[in-house]
Every structure is written in C-alpha cells, then in structure tokens.
C-alpha cells in the first residue's frame, strides 16, 4: 500500500515520541522553529481510550494541521481496543498509526504490553492485524527494540513479515534501557533483512543521535531511510533546522522561546501542573553565565505566572558560552 512514508525525503527525520515531553504544545514550538519531516504523539493507551477517562487520555492525541504528517502512537494489550482506537485515529485525521512494542517500563511490561510483546509474537501479530483492519488506508507501523535480554534478529524478521509500512528500531535491548550506546552497527544486517523480506517497509533507526550531520553520516553508512531523535532535542531544540547553529542563538532568543512555550502551555492546558515545564529548563536556559542561577529560580516556582515574571525581568550576563 502506498503511503506518506514512501514520499518523504531521504534521509528523513522524526521527533521521537516522548511521554510527558512531546505533547501538542512542544510539538507546536518545534514545528515553528525547525520542523522534522514527521511527528509522533506521545504513546496513548488503547484501553484508556475505551474507558471513562477517555477525554483525559485523548489529550495525548491532540494535534494541529501544521504538525502533519503526524503519527498516533498506541500501546496496550487487547487487540479489540487497538481496533477501536485505530478507527478513532483514522477518523480524526492522523497520517499514520504506530504501535509501541519497545517501552521497557517495568509496570507496563508486567501487564504484558509494549516491550513484553517481544516475548509474545502471537499477541503482537493479532494486535497488528486488528490495527490494520481498522486503519483502512492509514499506514500502520511499529516502534520496537532490538530484543529483550539480548539482540534478537528473529524478532525483527517476525515484524518485517507482518507487512507494516514502517519499522522504527531503538537500537538497544529492553534490558539495556538507555544505559549503553545504541548498537548502530546492527543496522547493516537489518537493512539486508528488510531488503529480502519486505522491501516496501521503511526503516527508521533511533538512538543517541545529536546532530543533523550524524544523520547524514549514518545514512551513508547504513542506508536506512529514516532517523528518529529523542533526547537530542533537549540539547538543541533547533536540531531539525539545518540553517540554525545553536551556538549563535542568543540568550534573549532562548528566553523568548521559553516564554512562548509557557504561554502556549497555559493557553492549551489551563490547569495542568507547571512542573512539566521545568523539564525544559535546561533546554532553554543553558550555556550562558547566569543560566544556572536562573534555572534555580525557575525550579522554585509553583505557578507559570511566577516563571514568566522571572524570565521577563531577567537582565543579566548574557554571553553565550560555546
Ligand atoms: C522522557 C521520555 C519519554 C519517552 N516516551 C516514549 C513514548 O511515549 N513512546 C515511545 O515509543 N518511546 C518513548 N521514549 C523513547 C524515545 O522515543 C526514544 O526511543 C529513546 O529516547 C531513544 O532515542 P534517543 O537516544 O534519541 O533519545 C521516551 C523517552 C524519554 C526520554
């Protein structure tokens, strides 16, 4: 089936789904300052989408038309809940539906979801089938890891046999969490397997990428089409904008961006806990003389209004340290 995945540039970029980080607000900001080729929502629980808490759960699936192409990421255990959730995602206009088969969170894995599916291919197969059945022309993809305790290419072969539109591989095992460098060298073998088993499945590599140059180098070396970046965005929110060098973004611009983020957060979420915004403190307030003391002040705030007053009144030492 032809889908938007085939029409993307080569190599293409994706901002990784990160629960508690890549909400509609942060994605809006990234869309404005340096848009990746594809965006993903945070992972969203399919059972939650069928529960009484549906309105709250659905918040993770908010998006704007400027964020397209955007992929809804789902997780859960019951194939029928995937069916119903995929139908919803299709109806609200998502460009793709991704199934999380990689999250290593202990409680989630204990429930048999996400990374636990690596050990339960029968259930993984049924989940993919039901998601595809409901999604119509909307492409279905999977994001996973290299294996559970150790690298297990049989798992990757199994996924490639499911005729999914794209496959994202976080190049670590579940047990490795994020504690060891990503095993990019395995990508050679995975590309060969893909070419043999399912040439139309688009391959996306993920793990430890910090710069656009690394994407170019890895594309030349390994040949997978897509590159997904997660934590790198904390170091450089302009990462997807090839014409901006973070070293030349002034302190005023960084503070203005944080203010914009906070205001958009307030406007969108109204009563949400502003502690979420503190996760971005270091992203915006780094590499200048007063950055540490400014961050300390922000961390003490309990309201967004207080954060805004501190940032708006800041008139300190503002030379960027490269
Ligand atoms: C705070 C945080 C939240 C995450 N949430 C999700 C998620 O909702 N869905 C998912 O597939 N992966 C999630 N991940 C994993 C990332 O998408 C990515 O696979 C991982 O961070 C490795 O990429 P990186 O080295 O570029 O950060 C999360 C990672 C972090 C740090």
Which terms summarize this structure?
alpha/beta, 8 strands, TIM Barrel, globular, binds flavin mononucleotide, single chain, 322 residues, 16 helices
Question: What features would you describe in this structure?
Answer:
This protein is α/β, with parallel strands linked by helices and 322 residues long. It has two domains: 8-235, TIM Barrel (Alpha-Beta Barrel); 246-313, no CATH class. It has helices at 4-7, 24-33, 46-49, 54-57, 79-91, 106-110, 121-135, 153-160, 187-197, 212-222, 232-235, 251-269, 275-278, 281-284, 291-299, 304-313, and strands spanning 12-15, 38-45, 70-75, 96-101, 140-147, 166-173, 202-206, 226-229. The protein has an eight-stranded parallel beta barrel with strand order 1-2-3-4-5-6-7-8, surrounded by four helices. Strand 7 (202-206), helix 10 (212-222) and strand 8 form a beta-alpha-beta unit. Helix 5 (79-91) runs parallel beside helix 7 (121-135) and helix 8 (153-160) packs parallel to helix 9 (187-197). It is globular. The mean pLDDT is 96. Flavin mononucleotide is lined by residues 16-21, 42-43, 73, 100, 102-103, 143, 170, 206-209, 229-232.
């Amino acid at each position: 089936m032809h889908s938007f995945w085939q029409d993307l540039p080569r190599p293409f970029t994706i901002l990784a789904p990160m629960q508690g980080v890549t909400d509609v607000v942060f994605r809006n900001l990234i869309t404005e300052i340096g848009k990746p080729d594809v965006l993903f929502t945070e992972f969203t629980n399919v059972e939650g989408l069928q529960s009484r808490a549906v309105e709250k759960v659905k918040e993770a699936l908010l998006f704007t038309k400027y964020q397209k192409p955007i992929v809804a990421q789902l997780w859960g255990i019951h194939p029928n809940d995937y069916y119903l959730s995929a139908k919803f995602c299709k109806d609200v206009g998502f460009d793709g539906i991704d199934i999380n088969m990689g999250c290593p969170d202990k409680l989630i894995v204990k429930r048999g979801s996400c990374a636990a599916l690596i050990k339960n291919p029968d259930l993984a197969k049924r989940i993919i089938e039901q998601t595809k059945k409901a999604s119509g022309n909307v492409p279905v993809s999977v994001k996973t890891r290299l294996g559970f305790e150790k690298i297990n290419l049989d798992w990757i072969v199994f996924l490639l046999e499911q005729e999914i539109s794209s496959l994202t591989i976080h190049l670590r095992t579940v047990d490795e969490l994020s504690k060891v460098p990503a095993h990019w060298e395995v990508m050679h073998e995975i590309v060969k397997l893909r070419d043999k088993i399912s040439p139309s499945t688009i391959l996306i590599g993920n793990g430890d990428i910090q710069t656009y140059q690394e994407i170019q180098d890895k594309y030349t070396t390994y040949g997978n089409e897509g590159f997904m970046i997660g934590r790198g965005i904390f170091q450089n929110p302009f990462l997807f904008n090839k014409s901006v060098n973070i070293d030349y973004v002034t302190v005023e611009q960084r503070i203005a961006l944080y203010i914009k983020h906070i205001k958009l957060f307030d406007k969108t979420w109204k009563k949400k806990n502003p502690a979420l915004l503190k996760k971005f403190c270091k992203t915006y307030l780094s590499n200048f003389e007063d950055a540490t003391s400014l961050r300390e002040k922000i961390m003490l705030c309990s309201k967004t209004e207080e954060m805004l007053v501190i940032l708006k009144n800041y008139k300190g030492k503002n030379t960027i340290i490269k």
